């Protein structure tokens, strides 16, 4: 696939690749220069669990999941 560097230095990933790898806006990548003209781009893991509690609470079998209070790690 072909893409172009913008005047801001941005490279757009083609939509086919974004859909294939489920890349959403805000996804982070690392980039490494292999040699002149050759680069390695890697998607960084998100570690994001936003929405998992809502997903579990929406389970059709009610009552099996109970949220627990979490302790703050700010004082550690």
TrEMBL record:
Q: Which InterPro entries match?
A: SpoVT-AbrB_dom, SpoVT-AbrB_sf
Q: Which top-level group of life is the source organism from?
A: Bacteria
GO MF, one term, reads: DNA binding
What range(s) does the SpoVT-AbrB domain occupy? 3-49
Coiled-coil stretches: none
NCBIfam families of this UniProt entry?
lp_hng_hel_AbrB
Name of protein? SpoVT-AbrB domain-containing protein
- According to the entry, what is the taxonomic lineage of the organism? Bacteria, Pseudomonadati, Planctomycetota, Planctomycetia, Pirellulales
